[in-house]
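ok trying this again, last paste got cut off
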Amino acid sequence: MPLSRLNKEQYNAATSKDLQNLIIASAGTGKTSTIVGRIGHLLGNGVKPEEILLLTFTNKAAAEMISRVAEYFGADIAKKIDAGTFHAVSYRWLKKYDKRVILKQQRELKTLFRSVFEKRSFMNIDAEIQPYGGNYLYDLYSFYQNTELNNNFEDWIIDKYPEHELFALIYADVVDEFELLKKEYGFVNFNDLLLHFRDLCRENDLGYKEVLIDEYQDTNALQGTLIDAMNPPSLFCVGDYDQSIYAFNGADISIIGSFSTKFPDAKVHTLTKNYRSSVPILSLATKVIEHNERIYPKQLEVTREGNFDAPKLLAYDELFDQYYAIATKIRDSFTPQEEIAVIFRNNSTADGIEVGLRELSIPCKRKGGTSFFDSQEVKAVLDLYTLLVNESDMMAFIHIFEFARGIGSAMAKELYLALKYVGNGSIFYGLYAPDESIKNPFEKRKLNHQLGLFDEFLELGAVGKYAKLNFEPKFMKNPVLKHPKLTKDSATFLHNFYLLFRDLKGIREPKVVVKKICESEFLRYISDILSTKRAQLKDGTIDEKLKTEKTTSIKRKMILLEELSRPYNKHDRFLNAMILGSSDLTQGEGVNLLSVHASKGLEYKEVYVIDLMDGRFPNRKLMQRGGSLDEERRLFYVSVTRAKDILYLSYAKYDKIKKMNFVPSQFLYEAGLVSKDETYKTLIAKELEEDG
C-alpha cells in the first residue's frame, strides 16, 4: 500500500476522515506521495476508482500519479480513475453528452472573432481614444471569462476600462454574435470547455465520491466555480501559496487563502518535512519568502543529513562576464550535466548563458522562452550566411525576403526563380550580371478558372518609379525590377540585399562576414520590422520605449553571434556549427536552461539562478503591468527550491550594451547575501511607493 511509505503528516492527511481537506505542501515535501496515498486510502476503503476525480495542472502530472497508483493496485483499476487537467476532463465529459463538440485552437477562433469584429464601424463615435483591435478584444474577453463571476461583459468593460464606455455596447455585441456563431458550428475553446462543463455539473450528478485537486494555488475564478458546481461529497486540495506564480494567467491566490473561510469545517494539514533541499538552501528560501504575508502558518524541517555548502553569491563587473564565467564554472563542475539547471527570469538572460555554453561545447536543452538559435533575427543572419555558402538554398532566400513589406512567400519564390533565370542558374549572376536580353523573367502561369489560377503578369511594371531612390545605375537595369507587385519599399529591400552581398564577396573570415551582416542597412531594416512588431500593443499602437528595448535586445543577440563566430576560420564549419550544433544545444541531453515557470515541480543537484539585478529579477516592468513584488518573490522562492545540494545566485553590475549600471536584487538583501545599505533603503522606498 502507498500509505506505508508516508511520514506521519502525510499519513494523517491521506487518511483524513474530514470531508474538506487542504494540504499545504511546500516545495519538496512529498505532495505527490500524499495524493497517491490518499487515492490508495480511498480505494482501500471501498471507493470505486471511477468515483475518484483527480485534477492536475498538467496531463503529465496526472499520468505520473496514475502510474504510481497502478504499481499498487494494477493498471486495470488505475485507468478507471478519472484524471487530467480541468480542460481534459471537461472535454471528455462534454464529448459524452454531445458528439458534435469541436475543440478549436485560440488562433482559429481569433480569426472567427476578427471576422465578426471587422464588420463593426466605430467611425461615428466621437471619442478621444481609439477602440481596441480585434485580437486585443478577444484576449480581454478570454480574461473576463476566467476571472469575472458576476458582471456581464459590457458592464465589466465599463467597470475595468471606463474610458472605453462609449465602445462597450459594440464590444458586447461582437461577443454576442461570436458566441452565436460558435454555437451554430459546435466550436468551443478552452474557456468554453470549463463553462459548458460547469453547466453540466449543475444539472447532473457525475457520481464522484471525492475530487482531488493538485496545484490548488494556481486555480482561477472560473475553475473555482466549476469545483463549486461539482459539489463533491469530499474535497482534497493540495497546494502551496508560496508557489502561486500564474497570476498573469488568471490564477487567484485568494482561492487557496479563503479555503478555511469557505469551508468552516475543513481540516488544514501542513507538510513540514522537506526531502529535497539542504539546510542552507531551505534556510535562504525561507528568509526571503517570509517577507510575503503568511496565509497559513508553516515551519519547514529539513530531513537530509550531512554537510552541505551554503548558497554562494557570484558578483560580476559586466553582464557578459557573468554568462561566460558561469559557463566555465559549469564546465569545471563535477556534477553530471543533466543534474545542473540554470534558471532565468527573462528570455534575454538565457541567450547569454546559452551562447556561453555553446562556446565551450557544453550541450544544453532549453525549456521556457525562445532559444537563441530559434529567434527570428538569428535565423535571418544564418539564412544570409547560408546563401553566401550555398546560393541554391531557395528556402533561405524566401525566409529572408518574407521580412520585406509587401513580399510574401509566393512572391519571394518568384523573385528567386527570376534572378536564377536571368543569371543563367545563379542568383548572384542574376543580381550583378543579369542577361539583359531577357525582357520578362517571370514565367507566365497557366490559366485555370476552376482552381482560381490566373495570369497576373500580363503587363510588367515600369522601373521609372524607382528613379528617385538612388539605386545604383547597374542595378536599375535588372529586369527583375519589372515585377508588377514590387513596390518602392520592397525594391529598396532588394537593393540593400544587392549591396550587402557585394560587400561580402571574397571575405574568408566568418567573424568579418557576421559583423558586416549585423552592421548592414539590410539587417537594420529587419531589426526595425521585428522590434516594431514586438512593441505593438494589443490595441494596435506601438510602444516606442518598448521598441527601443526590443532593438537593444536584437543588437545584443548580434553581439553574441559575433562572439560565436570568432573561433572559426571556414564558412562551412561555422555554418554547420550554428545550424547543426544549435539543435544539439536545445534538445536531448545536457545542462538544463529553464525559465522559472518551466522549472516548477523539478529538482536538480546544482542550480544557478542568474541575473539577480533589480529590474530583471524582480522584473519591475512586469510588476507595472499587473504583477506584484509578492509574485516576483514567489518566483524567486520557486527558483531556489529547485536546488538539492548546490545553489549559486549571480548578478552583474554593468551592461556594456545599454551602458547602464545595476544594483543587486532586493531578494539578495533579504537573503542576507548583500549587506543592507543605502541602495536597499531605496528599493524598500520604491516598494512602499508601488504599494501606494
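PB: full thing came through this time. DSSP finds 31 helices and 18 strands in the chain.
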